[in-house]
Automatic annotation (TrEMBL):
InterPro entries noted in UniProt: Acyl-CoA_Oxase/DH_mid-dom, Acyl-CoA_Oxase/DH_mid-dom_sf, AcylCo_DH-like_C, AcylCo_DH/oxidase_C, AcylCoA_DH/ox_N, AcylCoA_DH/ox_N_sf, AcylCoA_DH/oxidase_NM_dom_sf, Mito_Isobutyryl-CoADH
CDD domains with a match to the protein in the record: ACAD
Protein name listed in UniProt: Acyl-CoA dehydrogenase
PANTHER family: ISOBUTYRYL-COA DEHYDROGENASE, ISOBUTYRYL-COA DEHYDROGENASE, MITOCHONDRIAL
Gene Ontology MF terms: flavin adenine dinucleotide binding; short-chain fatty acyl-CoA dehydrogenase activity
Family: Belongs to the acyl-CoA dehydrogenase family.
Domain annotation Acyl-CoA dehydrogenase/oxidase C-terminal: ranges: 271-383
Source organism superkingdom: Bacteria
Length: 402
């Protein structure tokens, strides 16, 4: 690496651009191998820490980079351009750091400081564990099956979580659970997971997905996991989590968090589509069938399709940049508009890769080329919350209420 190790990205735009330009091809060099074998890219996160990227969304006062959404978007796009699975894990860490930094009143100061310090000094990763076999996604409602029981000055957790993205390397698990009380409370219990085996945490390596195969999104069993009392970082009555019971601060925080999530995930999948776009442009420039006697790029129908892809990606760029800028200025899009942004950007990204596949034919579907991996990865965009049915139903209700 030509750059010296960094703990924070430099403020110079030129220097930042150079760092990100170096990073993308380094991640891309191993992406196909990790995807093929379904292995977790531990070395990628060591590299991200060396560049100072893992703590970039940690507040400056806590030693991090204090990145706003526009800068975080640039970083996620650069990482995803090399390896989408790595970018997904980093995105989840950024979202948790943003939430912790914003909700200072709810997180005990010492616990918050420990999470941030570990990110800055060790490159520690954090993610939320929410989805369960019976509950499904908490976004659809219902009490979690994971139970926290208070015993003296500790909590004991028991539960089963799905899609624990990044679990092979996570240092912290923000576990969504309910208390074992006559009137249960629900919320976040912070579970430390050091590199050594943690008593009670068992990972079931079940992740065998079509896309994002290197994300390590396995199942996690919590079997009598004990945490300090202060690690119940944000637990409330169920009514306090419902929209009708939320305070204005919670509403504002949720809108901000929704914008961060949609813009970062949108940037990730847009970057996958851009990688596909780069590949197909090179392919049609170089591919010259004997029956044609010249490159495919000379055909008007090919030029038209490439132009359509460019239009889809240009629309994504404008929408994502606008949402990031508005959020950094303190006026994030509404929850409904963020949902429509996700619907549009991910739909455009999927369509762009599908058009690239149409032009490439069998070459694009071959595992010898990256286009089929980009297609598998970009399809995963449909799964993230909010999902398309919820987005469109909310938009339809709002439109009909006018």
């Amino acid at each position: 690496m030509s750059s010296s190790p960094l703990r924070r990205l430099p403020t110079s735009e030129a220097r930042l651009a150079k760092v990100l330009a170096e990073l993308t091809p380094r991640l891309a060099a191993t992406a196909a191998d990790h995807d093929s074998r379904g292995t977790f890219p531990h070395d990628n996160f060591a590299l991200l820490h060396q560049y100072g990227l893992i703590s970039q969304a940690v507040p400056v006062a806590s030693g991090g980079g204090g990145a706003g959404l526009a800068e975080a978007r640039r970083i996620i796009a650069a990482v995803a351009g090399g390896d989408a699975a790595t970018a997904l894990v980093l995105t989840m860490t950024y979202l948790q750091h943003r939430a912790i930094g914003r909700d200072e009143a709810r997180w005990p100061e010492a616990v918050r400081a420990q999470v941030f310090r570990s990110a800055v000094e060790e490159g520690a990763l954090i993610n939320s564990l929410r989805v369960e076999p019976e509950l499904g996604s908490p976004a659809r409602g219902g009490l979690p099956g994971t139970v926290a029981t208070r015993v003296g000055d500790r909590w004991r957790l028991r539960g089963h979580k799905l899609y624990s993205t990044g679990i092979p390397a996570l240092r912290w698990l923000a576990v969504w659970a309910r208390t074992h009380e006559p009137e249960p409370r629900i919320g976040v219990f912070l579970v430390p997971k050091p590199e050594a085996d943690t008593p009670g945490i068992r990972v079931i390596e079940s992740w065998n997905h079509m896309g994002l195969r290197a994300s390590g999104s396995h199942e996690t069993l919590l079997e009598d996991v004990w945490i300090p009392i202060e690690h119940a970082v944000d637990i409330r009555p169920p009514s306090a989590w419902a929209p009708a019971g939320a305070s204005q601060a919670d509403i504002d925080g949720n809108i901000d968090q929704q914008a961060w999530m949609v813009v970062l995930l949108g940037s990730l999948y847009d970057a996958v589509a851009r990688a596909a776009y780069d590949w197909i442009r090179d392919f049609v420039r170089e591919r010259a069938p004997g029956s044609l006697g010249k490159p495919l790029a000379t055909l008007p129908r090919v030029q038209e399709t490439i132009g359509e892809i460019a239009a889809l990606l240009r629309a994504n760029e404008v929408l994502l940049d606008d949402a990031a800028g508005r959020t950094d200025a303190g006026t994030p899009p509404s929850a409904e508009d963020s949902g429509l942004l996700k619907f549009t950007v991910t739909g455009n990204a999927i369509r762009a890769v599908e058009l690239a596949l149409q032009l490439s034919g069998n070459h694009g579907l071959s595992r010898n080329n990256p286009l089929e991996r980009h297609y598998r990865d970009v399809l995963c965009s449909r799964i993230h919350t909010p999902q398309n049915d919820s987005i469109l139903t909310a938009a339809g209700r709002a439109a009909l209420a006018d």
